[in-house]
Design a protein that fits this description.
Largest sheet: 8 strands, mixed
Number of strands: 32
Mean pLDDT: 93
Structural class: alpha/beta
Bound molecules: 5'-O-[(S)-butoxy(hydroxy)phosphoryl]adenosine
CATH class of one domain: Alpha Beta
Radius of gyration: 24 Å
Strand order of the largest sheet: 12-11-8-6-7-14-15-25
Low-confidence stretches: 623-631
Length: 631
Amino acid sequence: MADKFDVKLVEEAKYYSPPPEYREKAYVRDYEKTYQAFLKDPEKFWDGIARELHWFAPWKKVLDWNYPYAKWFVDGKLNITYNCLDRHVYNHRKNKVAFIWRGENGEERIYTYHKLYQETMRFANGLKRLGVGKGDRVCIYMPMIPEQMVAMLACARIGAVHSVVFGGFGATALNYRINDAEAKVVITADIAFRRGKTIPLKTLVEEAIINAPTVERVVVLRRKEPKVEIHSGIEIDFYDLMEGVEPICPPEVMDAEDPLYVLYTSGSTGAPKGVIHTCGGYMVGTYYTQKAVFDLKEDDIYWCTADVGWVTGHSYILYGPLAAGATIFFGEVVPDFPDAGAFWKLVQEVGITIFYTAPTAIRMFMKMGEQWPNKYNLSSLRILGSVGEPLNPEAFEWYYRVIGKSKIPIVDTWWQTETGMQMITTFVGEKMRPGFAGKGIPGVIPDVVDKHGKPVKPNTLGFLVIRNPWPAMLRTVLKNDERYRKYWETIPDCYSAGDLAVKGKDGYIMILGRADDIIIVSGHNIGTAEVESALVSHQSVAEAAVIGKPDPMKGNLIKAFVILKLGQTPSEKMTHDLTYHVRMTIGPIAMPSEIEYVDKLPKTRSGKIMRRVLKAKELGMDLGDISTLEE
Ligand code: WT7
């Protein structure tokens, strides 16, 4: 949050330079030159990248920009899975490893591009058998396993719109997402594994579909032995669905602007927003950034530790890496199980070369101590990445020194569910500045401005905006186009990201965190409104307000202020009940760590809770800098 804004740090300007060979061998050798080429002719820039991919029919125009609505690669026809699979299978990557997967118990599964291609087509034909076709919505609620990828790719193959729901969400959150997207089919597994325990995904789906009239079938991947029973009629086994189908499923011809998926992200007010991404521009944007930002080479083994249920997983575990023909590593694994060396052991065993994780994980590694990574040989690593929250200078230094042995570039990538692709970073050949993500990726024009859209002076706090449309941008919010327009109408003539930022004299941008009512806990984006409405749905609660409280490990913790109904009294049991209630409604990630019982809440005249006032009081600070930016 803005309370971490440190002028000294901004003025200090300390840099680290990567060894020169990074620049010499980089996919983008000269960042400035590439950026200038983009600025000179943005459409030509994106046209050139799109031509590296396969299209069934070419576009008539690169961009049709009718503020705030963009159409990219107008009338171009494609299928993203053709680019992720067929293109490689027909060329030299047929037997290349597409991914190596590991389970918590050490189980390993390896898919070549050819195998992934075949499995995708068979499952796609299975979905067709269930009556799923172009434009239908399919909800995927699965653990991080190969079948999750197959399910997503199969949807894209036949033009169905997937809505992946993070496996950590509970039944109510799942129900909302199923209903909002009007999903016809839900794909799940009996269980997920996490830290030696199992999570009963199928049971949660059963609960979530009680009030979900659009759901016709539930596909269940059965992992447990003996296999759990499935209810004939509505449920069907994942692999039974693939039995006896045609092995070939031609890719559906999609328009560049047809939707590829919907993904829910927390709103600052009200319900979660179903962000819509489309086929053509999203493919081009993720493909380019995967290659340019991670400097992907043919023999890299790339690991992004995010969950596929978040946009990071969509763009940089699945679509970006596969479109670029990478070898991916992923797993149903956590950083601290069975011990704090889990990730480093995998880096050594698998020979990971590119490692992309979140600041919250880095801070946890810092706490666990250097002895864990130092036990393993990490010399295969050549690029480190970070995403999800500000990478504070202390965490940067640690990551750089302990994991990177002071010679590996770190790409701190700023972007959002809405942007679809990475937007700001420091390219691998460029000097790095701790605390600062960097500059606009070629194709993107970021700026730091006041509420009128006027650039603020260097080294002062402002709002982060994007001045131009970019191919992977969200096209709308499902059933709420007004919310979409708000992104482009809050600050004149630009996309308002909702983050506070500072631009240094060198043009490097430091992102400080959300300016609105979203709390980022361990890299998960949680809307205050969602937690508040979960609390208020408890019979004892009259009113609730939720704030984020800075935490050295998780970035933020959730603190709730609760007004109880008349006749209810605060107690330890009450706190426990309310916390449990939020856990059951939204999921463990949204549980408040602290509940304070109050008699009233600070409000504006229009009745809007002033969370910022609560927060300032909690942290013992005055509103200073931030309040001047507000209405
Ligand atoms: C918000 C978007 C992008 C995938 C994961 C999160 C914060 C993201 C950075 C970064 C500082 C960052 C911002 C942003 N954020 N990356 N490198 N430095 N902050 O996607 O859930 O849509 O959250 O995450 O506040 O607005 P998301």
